[in-house]
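Progress note, project year one: complex with iron/sulfur cluster.
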Amino acid sequence: MSLPQFKLLRPRSLEEALDFLSKYAPDPAPGGLETAALGRPPRTPFVQTASIPTQDASIRVLAGGTDLVPSMRQKLFEPQYMLDLRAISALRGIKPQADGSVEIGALTSLRSIERSEFLRQHFPVLADAAATVASPTLRNMGTIGGNICLDTRCLWYNQSLTWRKGCGFCIKKDGDLCHVAPGGTTCWAAFSGDTPPSLLCLNAEIEIVSPSRASRISLQDFYTGLGDNYRKLQPNELVTRVFLPPSMAGYRGVYRKLRVRGSIDYPLAGVAVTMKQSNGHIDDARIAITAVNPAPMLIRGASEILIGKLPNESLAEAAGDLAARISKPLTTSALTPEYRREMIRVFTKRAVLAAAGLN
Ligand SMILES: Cc1cc2nc3c(=O)[nH]c(=O)nc-3n(C[C@H](O)[C@H](O)[C@H](O)COP(=O)(O)OP(=O)(O)OC[C@H]3O[C@@H](n4cnc5c(N)ncnc54)[C@H](O)[C@@H]3O)c2cc1C
Ligand code: SF4
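Model obtained:
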């Protein structure tokens, strides 16, 4: 499958990248981030004889390219311009701060995160999750920013143009129906990044920069919960940094994931747990899941179940039951939804016990 034609822009600094964005990115939707993300874009009417879609009249950000480039080969994106960030060294690196927090540049490779002694020691859940992404080669290229911004996935969407055309396309791209939930108007494509649940457990924030402003938001507020319009990011905005707060340093952490091929695959269900204990009791704990909903999610109520208790099998099972209830896997991905939900229960139990040092 060939790549569509595009013009490659290679800024050497953030300022240059923002200049390109102000020149080539379309104006943001009125109302800013919130409105753009929560308001549904107008749907094009479904036509049985749908023709080959026209090019996106837009610009796309390229970081490692490990997800974007295969998607472009499938003609899921056909931007006029590609903004290749890789030469911007200021956006790379893990920078511990004097107060115990850490800043991670959006272009930092997943391999650097996996291998960082500092992160392994102070924020182990993130290093654990990064080490499970794809394969070593892809982790060398893939970045933390790209993992956070990763497109949602579906068996009906991550296919070639010919395949999708044969099925009449779908809501997420060029069509007006959902093959997973027929009759509905919502896309349920699954968010399938491995590091965001650990970042949610760590209370991470991200910096978003556009030609006109910079803002810092909680990662939790970045995702919309929609399968198609899944993130609150305008075409003229970049994710530039990830911040981990000092209050989360030293928490034990574990990430567990289900995948078909252990050496390379996207998660089909994933669970991150962070925990702090004193005198055997749980002082604080969080659980987050991925790949079973259109957004990575913190499990509400998990902390209430765990805090103040002595960790044991039945407590871990209760946390697993809660996580399984909140997960909503559909037929967007390989393996059955029932099995994926069951594995959320099992992995949550195991991850809670492992974070407590009990297995
Ligand atoms: C065979 C295979 C297996 C994979 N397995 C996994 C897996 O197990 N787990 C997993 O999580 N991922 C997996 N991936 C996907 C991918 O490798 C990772 O998610 C990687 O972290 C993506 O980062 P990237 O830098 O390559 O992003 P890119 O592909 O460059 O970009 C991904 C998306 O993010 C946007 N983007 C990137 N950086 C920024 C930024 N700084 N600001 C704004 N937007 C940005 C891009 O425009 C694009 O929409 C797999 C990919 C392949 C091909
Ligand atoms: S859930 Fe899958 S089939 Fe349904 S609209 Fe989203 S991508 Fe298309």
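The two ends are 46 Å apart (CA to CA).
Residues 170 and 177 are 5 Å apart (CA to CA).
No further modelling is planned for this target in the current period.
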